[in-house]
């Protein structure tokens, strides 16, 4: 991946000279925030700048998690807090017939307001020494990045936060296969 950078005389690569930047767009649920945060850390280890975006509340949660990381692996990780309209999360209802965590719905609606700020950030990065911007977005955040492919030199890649085992398990069950409860 180092070929995307300009090498300095002393052999060091500067983030300011990076020709590629990555923008991460996670869904505002813990398992989704964490997975893209860990991917961000991996990408920054190649000295590629990563811009992690989201609503202010969720960026605070991500920043809190970074405190446990090795500082060397998060040195090129930049957080962008975008304001969203205030939302109120109702408390969870343990007696609800539907077990979907309805208290999360207002925060999901708030992410609708991230579409324009994300596009603006991509354009800003392209105007600041970056030849290409790669946007990696959570598979449940498609509406936030739907305008990005129309921006020259910007690419989008979808990230699935579901494990391969879970995917296999869902397919297995949908095809009428019994769950394996014990191994003999």
What does this structure look like?
The protein is an alpha/beta fold and 184 residues long. It has a single domain, classed as 3-Layer(aba) Sandwich (Rossmann fold). It has helices at 30-44, 56-66, 105-110, 115-126, 142-145, 164-174, and strands at 20-25, 50-55, 77-82, 132-138, 154-159. It has a five-stranded parallel beta sheet with strand order 3-2-1-4-5, with helices on both faces. Strand 1 (20-25), helix 1 and strand 2 (50-55) form a beta-alpha-beta unit. InterPro entries: Glyco_transf_N. It comes from Solanum stoloniferum.
Beta-strand level of the residues, as a percent range? 15-25%
N-end to C-end Cα span: 46 Å
Low-confidence stretches: 1-15
What's the number of domains? 1
Strand order of the largest sheet: 3-2-1-4-5
Q: Write the CATH fold name.
A: Rossmann fold
Along the chain, the helix and strand elements come as: EHEHEHHEHEH
Number of strands: 5
Shape: globular
Structural class: alpha/beta
Task: Average the pLDDT over all residues and give the rounded result.
Answer: 78
Helical region count? 6
Give the biggest sheet: 5 strands, parallel
Family: Belongs to the UDP-glycosyltransferase family.
GO molecular function: UDP-glycosyltransferase activity
Domain Glycosyltransferase N-terminal: 19-170
Organism: Solanum stoloniferum
């Amino acid at each position: 991946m180092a070929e995307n950078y300009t090498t300095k005389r002393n052999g060091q690569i500067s983030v300011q000279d990076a020709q590629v930047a990555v923008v991460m767009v996670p869904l505002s649920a813990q398992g989704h925030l964490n997975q893209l945060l860990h991917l961000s850390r991996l990408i920054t280890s190649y000295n590629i700048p990563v811009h992690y975006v989201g609503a202010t509340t969720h960026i605070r949660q991500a920043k809190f998690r970074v405190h446990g990381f090795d500082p060397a692996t998060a040195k090129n990780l930049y957080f962008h807090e975008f304001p969203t309209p205030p939302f109120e999360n109702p408390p969870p209802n343990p007696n609800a017939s539907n077990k979907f965590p309805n208290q999360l719905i207002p925060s999901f609606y708030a992410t609708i307001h991230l579409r324009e700020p994300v596009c603006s950030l991509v354009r800003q990065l392209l105007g600041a020494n970056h030849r290409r911007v790669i946007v990696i977005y959570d598979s449940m955040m498609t509406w936030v990045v739907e305008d990005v492919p129309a921006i020259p030199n910007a690419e989008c890649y979808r990230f699935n936060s579901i494990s391969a085992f879970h995917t296999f398990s869902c397919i297995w069950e949908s095809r009428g296969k019994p769950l394996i409860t014990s191994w003999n």
